[in-house]
Amino acid sequence: MKNKKQGTMLERRNNQGYLYLLPWIIGFLIFQLYPIAMSLYYSFTDYSFGSQYDFVGLANYLQIFTKDREVKNS
Which domain of life is it from (predicted)? Predict the structure, then answer.
């Protein structure tokens, strides 16, 4: 009976640790992971201000590495 009580106490302490980590995890998702994911998504689209996003796939990367002289010279 005593071991069961100690087990639940340890589980509460573990859950409390996750609760303390939750603000950091939320901040990481909002301020780090979301911008990285959206940058990756936008890199596969063609967007002109005021128009909709057009998915172009790897065309942006092909243009940069084959036709853009500034990238070749750098």
Answer: Bacteria
